Amino acid sequence: MPSTALLKRDWQKQHVYMIQYPRCRVLPNLSPWSLKLETWLRMADIPFTNINNEFKKFSSKGQVPFVELNGRQIADSNIIIDTLKQEFGKGDMDSSDPKDQSLVRAYTALAEDHLTWAMFAMRWKMDRFNFVLTDDGFGRYFGTGMKKRLNHFMIKRMNKKLVAGRANAQGMGRHSSDELHEIAKETLKSMCIFLGDKPYFGGDRPTTLDATMFGHLAGLVYIPTPNGLLTKYVKETYPNLCQFMERIKEKPLPNLSPWSLKLETWLRMAEIPFTNINNEFKIFSSKGQVPFIELNGRQIADSNIIIETLKHEFGKENMDPTDPKEQSLARAFTALAEDHLTWAMFAMRSKTGGFNFTLTDDGWGRYHGTGMKRRFTQFMLKRMSKRLVTDRANAQGMGRHSPDELHEIAKEALKSMCIFLGDKPYFGGDRATTLDATMFGHLASLIYIPTPNGVPNLFQLLTKYVKETYPNLGQFVERIKEKYWPDWEETCSTMNMNTHHKKE
């Protein structure tokens, strides 16, 4: 029932409590407004806690989602966002140009007041929103037996009131299914044209409009539609919309260093107990390397030397093949990944501004402080990047090539990896080996690190090669991620270096 009484009585100051419907399997939340708001909170890096409304807790306006902040209830996703921008100083997330603001308002209305209501009306006419009653929707929360039947009856009544009745009042509910299909199709076409080849609706960085679009497009991509045609339009006819969805959904890497990601992946594969320690950008091994480990009072550096040492210490030699031919192949493809592809990528990023990502909050920016401290830290990191990346890439040789030449070098390396992997699940065959940890560490950055603005087409093409031209590589990365990084989302969202990766 609508209420102004606080649900969180023991609230923390400047902490947002978001009340929304329970989670479901295909989307974090079936409500596009809830998904929009939670996406925005994540973009803005505002601390928040979700509270399940249990299908019966609503704001004083009768709306979900709503938030509680500093003992105050705020409803309506747009009002919530505007209020939080002011409270947390997030006004710079969006453009201050009046023309840009007018476009944002227009496309927000197109998503929230046009497309979503067309979809609501169409789903009601074609399948009565039966999906929400399944276990992939909200079905698991409805109990069993008589309780489940009663809950289904009540939900169907609520759907009729909330969806059919309001869709008729709004106007979309008065159209036929075919008419609604054409309305939605033309709306998607308009969104596709406006997005164009930009990575985000807001341009080069995600804005509030992107959170809105993600929240309202997600239902088309991730929830089965009655006839599947609109989902097909998003994925095939207007592919930039689907690419945008994946871009928002994907998280960056748990570690931007491919050698660190390789080593932690191997430790997870080998099931060796370990604890991560933050080097705070100033703690290095005696060789000047990161990562390094400490074991039994001894420091060991270099990811390959570390792995060989740990194999011996923990009896993990059987992880890798004993056949000399297979060992020689593993060594050759390790060199292709570590000494060829990754240095080509480093050189290309250094030439096109690709390392600017490390200075953002999705990279390492959140560790750089604010104000003068942030500016000084980032100045020092840029100097360090030049020494560590540009100068070393030149010394290694890759840094002397042009971006176009580096693109061809990387493309050919990926092609060789694709051919070697073939239709095997892992580079090592039927089971994951050290080579697979290496390949994962060095391929993941192509998929999960945002492409630079300097020469975006080159990087977008390489990402496309991994995902489409050489799809077995993209499938391999997902396979490793799913099996050995079940805490990927948690690690990237919380920046916790020691999440529990052994899920029950």
UniProtKB/TrEMBL annotation:
InterPro entries: FAX/IsoI-like, Glutathione-S-Trfase_C-like, Glutathione-S-Trfase_C_sf, Glutathione_S-Trfase, Metaxin_GST, Mito_Protein_Transport_Metaxin, Thioredoxin-like_fold, Thioredoxin-like_sf
SUPFAM superfamilies: GST C-terminal domain-like (SSF47616), Thioredoxin-like (SSF52833)
Recorded GO CC terms: cytoplasm
UniProt feature coiled coil, ranges: none
Domain named GST C-terminal: residues: 97-272
Similarity comment text for this entry: Belongs to the FAX family.
Name of the protein described by the UniProt record: GST C-terminal domain-containing protein
